[in-house]
Write a structure and sequence with these properties.
The chain has 170 residues and is α/β, with parallel strands linked by helices. The chain is built from 4 helices and 9 strands.
Length: 170
């Protein structure tokens, strides 16, 4: 199945000059969504993964069904101010601004092996901040899985030689 057929380009969103890659057509097609989840699952040995982590917000949509199917705990990386308990945080730059990501301070244990899931790699800033947060726990990201990689933005270069699995590259 060609999953790229389910990605819609939205020009000038969220700001002028950005072409947003909209995954909602993929999510709304049950076959395409199942194929996406299945491909990610097939790419990993879940005996070597302790935790599935989703990055706000579209990463949650992939991480939750994978965590459920693989019977692994689900951890959420959220934008600043959204988590109710004590947090650790890391700031990062986006291609159109900057932000901070947080995680509950008790959500990852030392030496946990994590599969980090998001919808897209652009400049790598968000996922790099997630790696920094995982380092604060003395844990390890064993892989990063995304639907889309915008290769021309070289985001992979920021991700500390972590194995990256992307289903679609532009």
């Amino acid at each position: 199945m060609d999953l790229s057929k389910y990605i819609r380009d939205i020009p000038d969103f969220p700001i002028q000059g950005i072409i947003f890659k909209d995954i909602t057509p993929l999510l709304s097609d049950t076959d395409a969504f199942q194929e996406t989840i299945n491909r990610i699952i097939k790419n990993y040995n879940f005996d070597e993964i302790d935790v599935i982590a989703g990055v706000e917000s579209r990463g949650f949509l992939l991480a939750a069904p994978i965590a459920d199917r693989m019977k692994k705990p689900l951890v959420l990386f959220r934008k600043s101010g959204k988590l109710p308990y004590k947090t650790k945080s890391a700031s990062y730059d986006l291609e159109y601004g900057s932000s901070t990501i947080e995680i509950h301070e008790d959500s990852i244990k030392t030496k946990d092996r994590i599969l980090l899931i998001d919808d897209l790699i652009a400049t790598g800033g968000t996922l790099s901040a997630c790696l920094d947060l995982v380092d604060q726990f003395n844990a390890k990201v064993n892989g990063i899985a995304v639907i889309i990689e915008l290769s021309f933005l070289n985001g992979r270069d920021m991700l500390k030689n972590v194995d990256i699995f992307s289903l679609i590259k532009y």
